[in-house]
Amino acid sequence: MTTLPEAPTSHKSAALGPNPSEGHETPPEGTETRIRPHRVLAVLVDNREKRPLAFPAETRGRQSWRVETFTACLPAGDYSLAGHGGRPGEAFGIAIERKSGWNELAGNLTAHRDRFTRECQRLTLYRTRLIVVEGASRDEPEMGMLRTRADPRALIASIDALSERYQIPVVWTRDREEAAQVILAALRRYVERHLAPGGASRPKDAHGAPATVPAWHLAQLETRIGNLERIAGELLSASLPVAPLPEPLDVA
Length: 252
Description:
alpha/beta; five-stranded mixed sheet
Protein backbone atom coordinates (compact mmCIF):
# COMPACT_ATOMS: atom_id res chain seq x y z
CA MET A 1 0.00 0.00 0.00
CA THR A 2 1.42 3.37 -1.05
CA THR A 3 1.35 6.48 1.12
CA LEU A 4 -0.37 9.45 -0.51
CA PRO A 5 1.20 12.53 1.07
CA GLU A 6 -0.87 15.30 -0.44
CA ALA A 7 -4.17 15.90 -2.19
CA PRO A 8 -4.24 15.63 -5.98
CA THR A 9 -4.87 18.81 -7.95
CA SER A 10 -7.57 17.38 -10.21
CA HIS A 11 -10.48 15.76 -8.37
CA LYS A 12 -11.89 13.85 -11.31
CA SER A 13 -8.62 12.62 -12.77
CA ALA A 14 -7.33 11.65 -9.32
CA ALA A 15 -10.26 9.39 -8.52
CA LEU A 16 -10.34 7.85 -11.98
CA GLY A 17 -6.61 7.39 -12.18
CA PRO A 18 -4.63 7.44 -15.41
CA ASN A 19 -6.05 6.12 -18.65
CA PRO A 20 -3.73 3.24 -19.61
CA SER A 21 -4.34 4.00 -23.26
CA GLU A 22 -2.77 7.46 -22.88
CA GLY A 23 0.83 8.39 -22.24
CA HIS A 24 2.33 4.90 -22.58
CA GLU A 25 5.00 4.00 -25.07
CA THR A 26 4.51 1.04 -27.38
CA PRO A 27 6.29 -1.98 -25.85
CA PRO A 28 9.24 -3.42 -27.75
CA GLU A 29 8.39 -6.01 -30.36
CA GLY A 30 8.19 -9.48 -28.89
CA THR A 31 7.33 -8.24 -25.37
CA GLU A 32 4.37 -10.01 -23.81
CA THR A 33 1.45 -7.72 -23.03
CA ARG A 34 -1.93 -8.15 -21.45
CA ILE A 35 -5.15 -6.17 -21.65
CA ARG A 36 -5.21 -3.57 -18.88
CA PRO A 37 -8.35 -2.13 -17.28
CA HIS A 38 -9.66 1.07 -18.80
CA ARG A 39 -9.22 3.08 -15.58
CA VAL A 40 -7.52 2.92 -12.19
CA LEU A 41 -9.61 3.23 -9.02
CA ALA A 42 -7.42 5.11 -6.51
CA VAL A 43 -8.69 4.01 -3.09
CA LEU A 44 -7.64 5.98 0.01
CA VAL A 45 -7.26 4.12 3.32
CA ASP A 46 -7.01 6.14 6.52
CA ASN A 47 -3.58 5.78 8.11
CA ARG A 48 -5.22 5.07 11.49
CA GLU A 49 -6.78 1.87 10.17
CA LYS A 50 -4.92 -0.81 12.13
CA ARG A 51 -6.35 -3.70 10.09
CA PRO A 52 -7.00 -2.38 6.57
CA LEU A 53 -9.27 -4.46 4.41
CA ALA A 54 -7.74 -6.30 1.44
CA PHE A 55 -9.21 -5.37 -1.94
CA PRO A 56 -8.94 -7.39 -5.16
CA ALA A 57 -6.60 -6.15 -7.87
CA GLU A 58 -9.49 -5.56 -10.27
CA THR A 59 -13.21 -4.87 -10.08
CA ARG A 60 -15.95 -4.71 -12.68
CA GLY A 61 -18.96 -2.44 -12.94
CA ARG A 62 -19.92 -0.60 -16.12
CA GLN A 63 -16.31 -1.14 -17.09
CA SER A 64 -13.19 -2.83 -15.73
CA TRP A 65 -11.10 -1.06 -13.09
CA ARG A 66 -7.66 -1.72 -11.68
CA VAL A 67 -7.65 -1.11 -7.92
CA GLU A 68 -4.76 0.72 -6.27
CA THR A 69 -4.71 1.62 -2.57
CA PHE A 70 -2.96 4.52 -0.86
CA THR A 71 -2.69 5.46 2.81
CA ALA A 72 -3.66 9.01 3.76
CA CYS A 73 -4.89 10.99 6.75
CA LEU A 74 -8.63 11.27 6.14
CA PRO A 75 -10.70 13.88 7.99
CA ALA A 76 -13.66 11.48 8.16
CA GLY A 77 -14.25 7.81 7.49
CA ASP A 78 -11.76 5.02 6.88
CA TYR A 79 -12.04 4.65 3.08
CA SER A 80 -12.45 7.18 0.28
CA LEU A 81 -11.19 8.09 -3.20
CA ALA A 82 -8.20 10.21 -4.17
CA GLY A 83 -9.45 13.72 -4.87
CA HIS A 84 -12.73 13.14 -3.01
CA GLY A 85 -11.69 12.44 0.58
CA GLY A 86 -12.16 15.94 1.98
CA ARG A 87 -8.46 16.61 2.52
CA PRO A 88 -7.13 20.12 1.79
CA GLY A 89 -7.81 20.85 -1.87
CA GLU A 90 -10.14 17.86 -2.28
CA ALA A 91 -13.89 17.62 -2.77
CA PHE A 92 -16.09 16.19 -0.02
CA GLY A 93 -17.17 13.34 -2.26
CA ILE A 94 -17.35 10.01 -0.46
CA ALA A 95 -16.43 8.72 3.01
CA ILE A 96 -16.98 5.21 4.34
CA GLU A 97 -16.65 4.37 8.02
CA ARG A 98 -15.87 0.75 8.94
CA LYS A 99 -16.87 -0.80 12.25
CA SER A 100 -15.52 -4.18 13.33
CA GLY A 101 -18.76 -5.56 14.76
CA TRP A 102 -21.43 -4.89 17.38
CA ASN A 103 -19.01 -4.80 20.32
CA GLU A 104 -17.26 -1.79 18.81
CA LEU A 105 -20.61 -0.22 17.93
CA ALA A 106 -21.88 -0.78 21.48
CA GLY A 107 -18.89 1.16 22.81
CA ASN A 108 -19.52 3.92 20.25
CA LEU A 109 -23.17 4.17 21.32
CA THR A 110 -22.51 4.20 25.08
CA ALA A 111 -19.11 5.07 26.55
CA HIS A 112 -17.87 6.88 23.41
CA ARG A 113 -21.19 8.24 22.14
CA ASP A 114 -20.07 11.89 21.97
CA ARG A 115 -17.07 10.99 19.81
CA PHE A 116 -19.17 8.76 17.54
CA THR A 117 -21.74 11.54 17.14
CA ARG A 118 -18.98 13.90 16.02
CA GLU A 119 -17.81 11.27 13.52
CA CYS A 120 -21.34 11.09 12.09
CA GLN A 121 -21.53 14.88 11.90
CA ARG A 122 -18.29 14.99 9.91
CA LEU A 123 -19.64 12.34 7.52
CA THR A 124 -22.59 14.59 6.65
CA LEU A 125 -20.17 16.90 4.82
CA TYR A 126 -19.80 14.25 2.12
CA ARG A 127 -22.02 13.75 -0.88
CA THR A 128 -21.95 9.98 -0.32
CA ARG A 129 -21.43 8.49 3.16
CA LEU A 130 -21.76 5.01 4.52
CA ILE A 131 -21.14 2.95 7.67
CA VAL A 132 -20.13 -0.65 7.00
CA VAL A 133 -20.31 -3.05 9.95
CA GLU A 134 -18.03 -6.04 9.58
CA GLY A 135 -19.12 -9.52 10.66
CA ALA A 136 -22.44 -8.56 12.27
CA SER A 137 -26.19 -8.41 11.71
CA ARG A 138 -28.63 -5.75 12.88
CA ASP A 139 -30.41 -8.17 15.25
CA GLU A 140 -27.25 -9.56 16.82
CA PRO A 141 -27.63 -7.68 20.17
CA GLU A 142 -30.90 -9.51 20.83
CA MET A 143 -29.05 -12.83 20.64
CA GLY A 144 -26.92 -12.09 23.72
CA MET A 145 -23.59 -11.89 21.87
CA LEU A 146 -22.32 -8.59 23.32
CA ARG A 147 -19.79 -7.74 26.01
CA THR A 148 -22.13 -5.18 27.56
CA ARG A 149 -25.21 -5.14 29.80
CA ALA A 150 -26.86 -2.33 27.85
CA ASP A 151 -30.39 -3.08 26.67
CA PRO A 152 -30.09 -4.57 23.14
CA ARG A 153 -33.25 -2.72 22.08
CA ALA A 154 -31.62 0.55 23.13
CA LEU A 155 -28.54 -0.15 21.02
CA ILE A 156 -30.59 -0.99 17.92
CA ALA A 157 -32.86 2.05 18.37
CA SER A 158 -29.81 4.26 18.94
CA ILE A 159 -27.98 3.27 15.74
CA ASP A 160 -31.26 3.59 13.80
CA ALA A 161 -31.75 7.12 15.19
CA LEU A 162 -28.22 8.22 14.31
CA SER A 163 -28.54 6.71 10.84
CA GLU A 164 -31.76 8.62 10.16
CA ARG A 165 -30.72 11.90 11.77
CA TYR A 166 -27.51 12.14 9.77
CA GLN A 167 -28.79 10.26 6.69
CA ILE A 168 -25.99 7.69 6.82
CA PRO A 169 -26.92 4.21 5.55
CA VAL A 170 -25.64 1.32 7.67
CA VAL A 171 -24.68 -1.89 5.86
CA TRP A 172 -24.25 -5.15 7.80
CA THR A 173 -21.83 -7.71 6.39
CA ARG A 174 -20.95 -11.33 7.22
CA ASP A 175 -17.17 -10.99 7.37
CA ARG A 176 -14.16 -8.92 6.32
CA GLU A 177 -14.29 -10.21 2.75
CA GLU A 178 -17.88 -9.12 2.27
CA ALA A 179 -17.14 -5.76 3.95
CA ALA A 180 -14.34 -5.19 1.43
CA GLN A 181 -16.68 -6.08 -1.44
CA VAL A 182 -19.34 -3.62 -0.21
CA ILE A 183 -16.85 -0.79 0.25
CA LEU A 184 -15.21 -1.33 -3.13
CA ALA A 185 -18.60 -1.51 -4.86
CA ALA A 186 -19.66 1.77 -3.21
CA LEU A 187 -16.46 3.52 -4.32
CA ARG A 188 -16.79 2.15 -7.86
CA ARG A 189 -20.45 3.20 -8.14
CA TYR A 190 -19.60 6.69 -6.93
CA VAL A 191 -17.07 7.08 -9.75
CA GLU A 192 -19.32 5.56 -12.39
CA ARG A 193 -22.35 7.64 -11.41
CA HIS A 194 -20.77 11.00 -10.72
CA LEU A 195 -17.30 11.17 -12.32
CA ALA A 196 -16.99 8.82 -15.26
CA PRO A 197 -18.14 10.05 -18.70
CA GLY A 198 -21.88 9.57 -19.02
CA GLY A 199 -22.35 9.27 -15.25
CA ALA A 200 -25.50 10.63 -13.68
CA SER A 201 -25.45 13.97 -11.87
CA ARG A 202 -27.49 15.14 -8.91
CA PRO A 203 -31.14 15.84 -9.85
CA LYS A 204 -31.98 19.52 -10.46
CA ASP A 205 -35.20 21.44 -9.78
CA ALA A 206 -37.00 23.71 -12.27
CA HIS A 207 -34.50 26.52 -11.60
CA GLY A 208 -31.42 24.37 -12.10
CA ALA A 209 -30.61 24.15 -8.39
CA PRO A 210 -29.97 20.80 -6.65
CA ALA A 211 -33.25 19.07 -5.88
CA THR A 212 -34.33 19.18 -2.24
CA VAL A 213 -36.44 16.90 -0.06
CA PRO A 214 -40.08 18.08 0.18
CA ALA A 215 -40.88 19.94 3.41
CA TRP A 216 -43.57 17.45 4.43
CA HIS A 217 -41.09 14.58 4.14
CA LEU A 218 -38.58 16.44 6.32
CA ALA A 219 -41.29 16.97 8.95
CA GLN A 220 -42.10 13.26 8.96
CA LEU A 221 -38.40 12.40 9.17
CA GLU A 222 -37.86 14.75 12.14
CA THR A 223 -40.81 13.22 13.96
CA ARG A 224 -39.53 9.69 13.41
CA ILE A 225 -36.00 10.65 14.50
CA GLY A 226 -37.37 12.30 17.64
CA ASN A 227 -39.33 9.16 18.53
CA LEU A 228 -36.32 6.90 17.98
CA GLU A 229 -34.08 9.11 20.11
CA ARG A 230 -36.67 9.29 22.90
CA ILE A 231 -37.06 5.50 22.95
CA ALA A 232 -33.29 4.99 22.90
CA GLY A 233 -32.83 7.44 25.76
CA GLU A 234 -35.51 5.79 27.89
CA LEU A 235 -34.11 2.31 27.29
CA LEU A 236 -30.54 3.37 27.97
CA SER A 237 -31.47 5.13 31.21
CA ALA A 238 -33.36 2.02 32.35
CA SER A 239 -30.48 -0.32 31.50
CA LEU A 240 -27.99 -1.71 33.94
CA PRO A 241 -24.63 0.10 34.17
CA VAL A 242 -22.65 -0.44 31.01
CA ALA A 243 -19.61 -2.67 31.45
CA PRO A 244 -16.40 -0.98 30.29
CA LEU A 245 -15.39 -1.94 26.78
CA PRO A 246 -11.88 -2.06 25.30
CA GLU A 247 -10.88 0.86 23.11
CA PRO A 248 -12.08 0.32 19.49
CA LEU A 249 -9.42 -1.04 17.15
CA ASP A 250 -10.00 1.63 14.53
CA VAL A 251 -10.82 5.15 15.63
CA ALA A 252 -11.27 7.59 12.79
